[in-house]
DNA sequence: CTAATTCTGTACCGACCGGTGCAAAAATAG
DNA sequence: CTATTTTTGCACCGGTCGGTACAGAATTAG
């Protein structure tokens, strides 16, 4: 039942963490096998035996990145209101793309936004993953619309597209060196465009609640 | 006074247009010299003689791109109000990143958002150019704040950062295949967060004007 | 015409690319 | 112990990378 041959001399997740870091900084196309093996501290055949090839190593890195570095998405989606979901998500995102000790920006975007024909599949893979994430927000907003947490006049997919657009913009800005504080001021403003529960009358309840909106207004 | 030796057999701008297209689709790092010379229809020494090297060819392409494909920025900045500037800019941007017959997205972002150590200068070059563009908007907003076109409580740099963040997000979305119509719905929403002239009392005039705000409001 | 100048195509440079063959090393099974 | 299985490091594969040397072609100056 125990493993048979010579045991692996490195930890898979430790190695993936190093791979994440390199891909995050340099993108898929900008990272060579030598960059990878040097950062991971393993030899080339060890990498191929453990992960398959460069592309599969990248996908494994992205999956781990999503599970570890983007865990805040699940937290945001579990918030009681749609507005709170968006607020938590964008705040956490602004923090995540400016985390000290990690590369600035977001692996899902820097990893490969464009590429030559060879690396095309990786670009699509990342785009698909981002679209999946956006869909989770759309589902959350659709639920809010259904239960009165958002105005019925809103479109869940459009709201989600707006949120993910701002999120992508934050990543681009962070990659260019914009500070965490500046990004939070961008988030302040972006949130002004998102409807909150207090600003309309829910269908499922009388409209008598006290506004808890934290949002500024032009005045 | 006329040129001395054998005349160049291709047009510089025509060749640059082809280079723009390839860099736009594939990014700097994803574009090889062979990709370039094939698309431009010239030989390798001709390219080196005309533009210097790959990096200088890229910079020349970006400069032409900014002058030709982003001419709408100047138009937007010449709008009478800050709000109109932002509205025109984001509308034109949504159109530009989804122009039929051109690659989806924006050369300034797809061209190189991340890269290995070799191509690092190009990434910074693009980021610097984007920052320059953002500064032009900040200047425009500062002027509006000074002359009462925007509330004195607003911060010009923050507003510009917000606009350029949304713009970057639009480019990322377009690169992933999002349609022009969807992007315009994102712009609809993004504009809700930008203060317009009608929603406050200008310092330089009595506040009696009729609101001309085109902006939706939560019901 | 000849001389000087500039561009063009071929053919090549060393370096690096992603990926692998192979034998030694390190473990378990019997 | 021997046999089997798996990982390891070294060395190498063909192909492509960005860049260039060189000679011939095309032009102007005189």
UniProtKB/TrEMBL annotation, chains A, B:
Record's compositionally biased regions (Polar residues): 210-219
Renumbered residue ranges of the record's region Disordered: 198-219
Pfam families: TetR_N
Protein name as annotated: TetR/AcrR family transcriptional regulator
Record keywords, A-Z: DNA-binding, Transcription, Transcription regulation
Domain HTH tetR-type: from-to ranges: 9-69
Gene3D superfamilies (alphabetical): Homeodomain-like (1.10.10.60), Tetracycline Repressor, domain 2 (1.10.357.10)
DNA-binding region: 32-51
PANTHER family linked to this entry: HTH-TYPE TRANSCRIPTIONAL REGULATOR YJDC, TRANSCRIPTIONAL REGULATORY PROTEIN
Species this protein is from: Catenulispora subtropica
